[in-house]
Amino acid sequence: MSDESTDAIEGAAGVLDATAVRAFHDRLDGDVAVDAEDLFAEIRACEELKNALCARQARAAVAAHTIQRSRDLEHGISKADTARMVGSQVAAARRSAPHLGSRLLGLAHAVTEEMPHTREALAAGVISEWDVTALCRETACLSRDDRATVDAAVADQLGTVSHQRLEGSAREHAYRLDPEAFTARRARAESERRVTLRPAPDCMTRLTALLPVKDGVACYAALSAYAKSHATPEHPRGQVMADALVERITGRAPADGADVEVNLVMPLDSLTGDAPAYVPDYGPIPADLAREWVGDDPDQQTQVRRLFTFPGSGDLVGMESRARTFTGLLAKFIRLRDQTCRTPFCSAPIRHIDHITPYADGGPTDERNGQGLCERCNYVKEHPDHHVTGDATRTTTSTGGLVAASHPPSPPGIPPPTRSHAERTLIDVMWTHYTTPPDHGDVG
User: Which of 53, 126, 277, 311 could make an S-S bridge to 266, C-beta 3.0–4.6 Å?
Assistant: First the structure.
């Protein structure tokens, strides 16, 4: 590295400019460490640096927009024309399409001016620009003050949960603040349902359908149910689902007519208030939509199965029974509770139900020692350098010198499930008492 580059880095404490950034960039070709844990630490540091640079890019874009706006005012140029031009400049600087540059400029303004917690997390490097995009998208229909409220509400989740979990939490909080805006937004979105086709590598295509949540979840559930009984090692689940989709749409093979079940997890006050409900494989939905589903025709093929959450607790109640092995209802219970893979930051679909404390080490086969995992993570946890401890309420994963915790997602508007066996027993007793019809004896 040249002396000029070194001087640029040393003199960059006050003002960071392109020269200093490029000088640091030139240093990245150096040798890497030889210790595995040091390498993982470097990978973490590089990831945080990438995210922090996104925060720096956002600040730079807003500052450039402010400078350009002050210049354009003198020439009578409208705000819209200035924003359009700066968006194109941002796109050119980032080697992106012009329309994307305008979105990035809007994102930069939102995160730097309206979402202080998100801005700080991005600058610290613990969340990505993609996370920020999701948070801004889910709060786009809110006022500036309400957006700041959602920003504060999800602050403790920034950098600690998966992208999907963070997005769902922001959607839930945004809905609670302005249900009417979300209802109007949903009606507009349903009118824009469509099917698109895009090319993919290796002579493949991506056929995408933008559908209302109930229809989309029902379609996926129907294909999943078909694949469950027809998949083989030679023709795995994904292939069978894709083939069934083509056969049914093109008429090569008719649907089997089997009923499709959509699970709806809801607090009791979703029936009368604005508490959002939750659809596994999707996320929170508004209470008014949940009430629509509950009131639908019971003879339709897509059946809605309601699962209620106990008031003030994250415990699912009202299920038929609990088994003692990870099959049947107990496996279904854990899938509904965990929703996605329980490995920190993983949001893949659950494929396996397994013990947290291994059965060979004395771990019981029960709800508190069960967790939902994707296929990959269930195999990885068998490695001797991969350690998982805890219970269903909180698990801690340690590997490669890194440690992260995982919690089951809270059903809408309530805390995580109780850890107390006594409290869980009391919940079961109270639920049975309040939902069992009274016996009035013989009449007459």
Answer: 277
pTM for this structure?
A: 0.70
Kindly give the residue spans of alpha helices, DSSP state H, lying in 139-204: 144-153, 163-177, 179-190
| Among candidate residues 249, 256, 259, the one with its CA nearest the CA of residue 300 | 259
What pLDDT sits at residue 260? 64
Phi, psi angles (nearest 5°) of residue 21: -65, -45
Question: Residues near 152 by Cβ (< 8 Å), separated by ≥ 6?
Answer: 117
Instruction: Tell me the C-alpha to C-alpha distance, in Å, between residue 83 and each of 93, 98, 103, 277.
Output: 15, 12, 10, 39
Q: Is 304 helix (H, G, I), strand (E, B) or coil?
A: strand
Q: How many CB atoms lie within 10 A of CB 293?
A: 18
Q: What is the DSSP string of 345-411?
A: T--PPP-EEEESS-GGGT--SSGGGEEEE-HHHHHHTTSTT-EEEEETTEEEEEETTEEEEE-PPPP
pLDDT for 58 equals: 96
Interior CA angle at 18 toward 17 and 23, to 5°?
105
Q: What Cα–Cα distance (Å) separates residue 297 from each residue in 68, 134, 280?
A: 58, 34, 21
Q: Is 13 exposed, middle or buried (0-12, 13-18, 19+ CB in 10 A)?
A: exposed
pLDDT value of position 399: 87
Residue labelled with tokens 């309400």: 146
Residue 292: CA count within 13 A, CB half-sphere: 10
Closest CA to 6 of 17, 18, 20, 374: 20
Percent of the chain as helix, strand, coil, to the nearest 5: 50, 15, 35
**Cα–Cα distance between 195 and 209 in angstroms, integer?**
4
pLDDT of residue 438: 54
Under 8 Å between Cβ of 371 and 338:
yes
Average pLDDT per block of 10 residues along the chain, 444 residues long: 46 70 86 87 94 96 95 92 93 91 95 97 96 95 94 95 91 88 85 91 91 88 87 91 90 62 71 74 78 64 66 54 51 82 88 86 81 88 88 87 84 56 64 54 45
| DSSP reduced 3-state for 251 | coil
